[in-house]
User: What shape does this take?
Amino acid sequence: MNKKNVSQIRKDFPNLHVKVHGKPLVYLDNAATTLKPNVVIDAITNHYKTTTANIHRGVHYLSEKATADFEVTRNKIKALINAKSSAEIIFTRGTTESINLVSNSYGRTFLKKGDEILISEMEHHSNIVPWQMLCQEKGCILRIIPFTDSGELDLNAFTKLLTPKIKFISIVYISNSLGTINPVKTMIARAHQLGIPVLVDAAQAIAHLPIDVQELDCDFLVFSGHKMYGPTGVGVLYGKTELLNKMPPYQGGGDMISSVTFEKTTYNVLPHKFEAGTPNIADVIGLAAAIDYIQKLGWDYIEKHDQELLDYGTKALNKISQLRLIGTAKQKSAVLSFVLPQIHPHDLGTLVDQDGIAIRTGHHCTQPVMKHFGVPATARASFAIYNTKEEIDKLVQSIEKAKKIFK
Amino acid sequence: MTDQNELYQQVILEHNKKPRNFKKLEKPTHMAEGYNPLCGDHLMVYLNLNKDNTIEDVTFEGDGCAISKASASMMTMTLKGKSVDEANKLFEEFHQLVTGNLNPDKDKNILGKLAIFSNVWHFPARVKCASLCWHTMKGALDKKKSISTE
Assistant: This one.
């Protein structure tokens, strides 16, 4: 394995080297989106410069080349998450569209009035609202797995909620606002005892831990390219072949058909049945470079680095008097949400930004989580492969400085 | 370069710490609720108008960042004793101020102490923090019950 240290990794990310308000950028908003390495930027640029064409259509050289490059990404994703077949990998615009695809196609076909859908209290709005919309339309009932004050799913409550009335479960693997790594494998096994399909939202997990969909035995898994050092505008839906085959198309158009007459249209086979219209070709090709980058780096480095930053950051922030960490689960990824009694997160966000430090402030699209902790918003530092302990020190200094202004 | 200290001036910090007129009015003639869904800032503005359309009393309650709290506090101080027409004019001028379209040193205005918010337009993400209370006050005068910045 290509062993790299963090200073070498930082050289691969040009955006890390810009100055913000005259200070070197400290980018700690990786749960929102990660920065992109040169290899990803180059792959996209090269496609536009040398292989621009529509895919699955032309017989000319460029179209065949672009089609082959596009399908290479599908195969790399199949390998990355250990799917059985590349036909189980559907390209979407992102996690949100992947969930909407499942709620529309699977949900509207197989769920009926009175059926229950189970999600958790720590879901991102993108894993709440599509299911609420489905409930409104079909008369289904949304059930919520609560979490404890440390930010861990209450598995006793899960057991009680898990009745034959539940017809679908959709849960987050790693929480974007709390950092909690949920025991999805155990939960899936329990759900399968009752024959309930499970969707795993891996938007945060995909760049932080190795995922094996066959080992997890999840029925669907969704994620975005841009949180794994890839481009925005491309995401993935993994689904088991047998489920995808019995689901109707999500959108109609070109590429998703085998034949069209005004009397009857025959749909294409998987995965194309779910990929209507010209996809985001350049960014799908760029995503392949991101996957290569992650795999070259290796999960040993990624997981070790994540835990080191989490440990260091947790200790460093806990030393700041009156600072309260939100989300202290035992199994956690490097996300640190926090509040200070005297400074509103938005003021803190503006103040640390003046030191070149990018953190997220707000409800992180998880308003129920904010409600649980009785706060309107939090500040959140979230880490990636290129972050350093020195950057955490800078954050701490900047918070202390802000505290002096707000004393 | 605009530096943070120009946004977080002592007056603003002080109003954040000790907001004036920070209470509910029991029987307001006008009231509205303001909400910024983006950041969760939330406030109520209460007004008591007399028969001559003069603002006899104005108060606010709510949760928000320093900018939104200080802005609401200073708004209530400014509006007491003003006519509805003056309040509307101040609303317009404040909006121009925080969007960078009014320079209090050059352009004629009746903003007075509110000119301290002139740096807010350098922080586009924070413009709504400063203007939420004003939109809510305007909504109350126009008899709208709830105001959202979105």
